[in-house]
Amino acid sequence: MPDREDLAAGAPWVLLRSTQRDWDEADGDLLRTLLGRAQWIRSFEEHVLDLAGRGLVHGPAHSSIGQEGGAVGSVLPLRSDDYVNGSHRGHHQFLAKAFGHVAKAKGGELPALDDDVRTVLRRTLAEICGLAEGYCGGRGGSMHLQWREAGAMGTNAIVGGGVPQAAGFAWNQRRAGDAVTVTYFGDGAVNIGSVLETFNLAAAWQLPVCFFIENNQYAVSTTVAEATAEPRLSARGLGFRIPSWRVDGMDPLAVHLAMTEALAVMRSGGGPTIIEADLYRYFHQNGSYPGSAFGYRSKDEEKAWRARDPIDLLRRHVVRRGLASAEEIDAARDGVEAVLREISAEFLTPDGRSIRESAWPDPAFVDIGVRGDLSELDGSRYEEQAGFSGELAERRFIDVVSDVLARRLESDARVVVLGEDVHRLKGGTNGATKGAIERAPERVLGTPISENAFTGLAGGMAIDGLARPIVEFMYADFMWVAADQLFNQVAKARHMFGGHGSVPFVLRSKLAAGTGYGSQHSMDPAGILTTAAGLRVVAPSNPFDYVGLLNTAVACDDPVVVLEHVDLYGTTGIGPVADFDYRLPVGQAALRRAGDSLTVISYLSMVNHCLEALDIVDLSADLIDLRWLDWASLDWDTIERSVRKTNRVLIVEQGARGTSYGGRLADEIQHRLFDWLDAPVERVTGGEASPSISKALERAAIARTEEVVEALRRIS
What we know:
Blueprint (H helix, E strand, L loop, with lengths): L12 E4 L3 H6 L2 H26 L14 H8 L7 E4 L4 H12 L12 H14 L23 E4 L7 H14 L4 E6 L6 H13 L3 E7 L2 E2 L2 E2 H4 L8 H4 L4 E5 L3 H16 L5 E6 L20 H8 L3 H11 L5 H22 L44 E5 H15 L3 E5 L14 H6 L4 E3 L4 H14 L3 E6 L9 H14 L9 E6 L14 H4 L6 E3 L4 H13 L4 E6 H4 L2 E5 L13 E4 L4 E5 L3 H12 L3 E5 L10 H11 L2 E4 L9 H11 L9 E3 L10 H7 L3 H11 L1
Helix pairs in contact: 2-3, 2-4, 2-12, 2-13, 3-4, 3-10, 4-5, 5-13, 6-7, 6-16, 7-16, 14-19, 16-17, 21-25
């Protein structure tokens, strides 16, 4: 028989219940505030459902009716410098945090509807209706609510999508003081990979973030018991050594007590916490019908949960203890309902059937804030290689990458480098972070293998603005693993939340076609990345340009992807010896060779292949090194001047046709410059399929000098 020993979890997991004594001893102002704010939220949500039922809310109305106790109980102990973010069902958390920021306490009374509270109600209602007065200018609607000043950092339509960002907020907060972040999500998100990845990352790094699980029993119509074998969702914490609480979410005082204990852990440096609040949404996923109307819940179940209503519970204890009379409570409820009617009347036409035209955002606002105006780069020292004021020498590409990264960490304490193995192996898998490790090892963060989590964490760092993260993807293909955080979150955040703020996020991504790493490590992502309007994309082809482009990327307040080809790492070229502070301007291509017969357009390592091919064919051609690939930064002036001169175009790229960058560029050139073209735009690309492991098949799948030579001869 084997020896057996029962193992104990490394972190506590408790079920917390309030007692009669807790209710008797609770501060009277605490109970009045919990009741007052919960009622404000309930009345607000009922008003939203009324407007939605009248067709005045465009899109979903995910009400939180029934769940107010979890929100007010958990938010009330927070300070303004603490952060919250949440999911698509986040009105109650947003309002609770906003009320906590503006409401002025009056001892011995129910909370008052002063002008600041009315403004919160007004602007939140406007946002949900998509109106100009909303916190996000109407762009966020019901699911994307953000008010940074109050510490409400954004609700999120992607289930679990905001959880990794919360870890980024918490990383910044740990450096700055003792503030914390609370990230709210439902039972449906608990089984999502990015959420579990973030549990692990936050625990490994001891980040002050509370994972608040609103277990409302259903992910749309799927029960918790159907979705997992362990329906006590806070049990997830044990696997990551995170202290965890399970609490009755219909009991606001119990939630408040649990959060108070969790805050003590986080503010003292104890790392992350989990609170699971069992509660219930009274209505369906969206709208004003109960779940029983759709057949997945019974009326008896709904009745049983409603009998435990958090507002009724608070009301009974407030009246029992003589803290307010039933008449005063009713009057307070009637008061907020009247205010909400007044607010919406100002948005609506006199007949109440539609929104006033003057309340809508100006249609010209539609694309404002997709990216910034680059004013943060004013005063930059821009230098090209010709005329460079510093010392230049033949430098190995990867050594220059290491030098400039080290310089950025050395010169700016906000800069952080993170990714898999970046802190080991004498500079990561290719040596890029060697200098950074030597200069600022505490800001070179080796992550677990969890692209979604650490990309989102870096996104949170950037959205908060206290850090300027540089993320490394070991291979560009890994962007698919982190696609939600890269495309849905980082790329959209600035615009989605009204064009306010900035997202100073840099992603360094390695391209490795030709190295034998096969289909899942060899893609050129440029064609995909540049479909995301909020991303800027740069593609350096030589050491000198790498320094200037990376410096501009790090200084930019927009998210920038810096593409690097592994073929370039071991090559040498002209680069700086000691001056790593110059920049290259956004949207400026480089003319690498001048000629009259053809315009050749390329980027990254294919620029050198084009130079080799032009030497072989001896064709007089302009060779344009794009440097900036995203649509907002393309140097159309240089392209147009060349095409007007040569009247022929060849676009050269290495990767597969299906994810081609050149296809879209060719189409745009033919739209813009059709009258100047003597022939259709020609292209050199790789094959249809991604490169495979076989050396012969890999070579057949990608473009190099030989394919460019063949195209030049065909054209000439």
